[in-house]
Sequence to fold (75 residues):
Amino acid sequence: MEQQVRDAIETVRPHLQADGGDIELVGVNEETGVVEVRLQGACRGCPGAAMTLKMGVERILKEKVPAVTEVVAVQ
Fold:
């Protein structure tokens, strides 16, 4: 599952980088399906980061990796 999540994040990364941000995979809990990521660059502290995380990153990861239940940002 972790490799699938990594591959899915690679499809999202160029869009974040285009806006001056980036994303780092922190961990995947295969039992609960929770994925932890760290937003970086312009995404870190951006007022729209929570929406980007839930409506963008989480949605795409859930589509590509059905075992993903939630994506959360960590510091």
The helical segments are 2-18, 49-64.
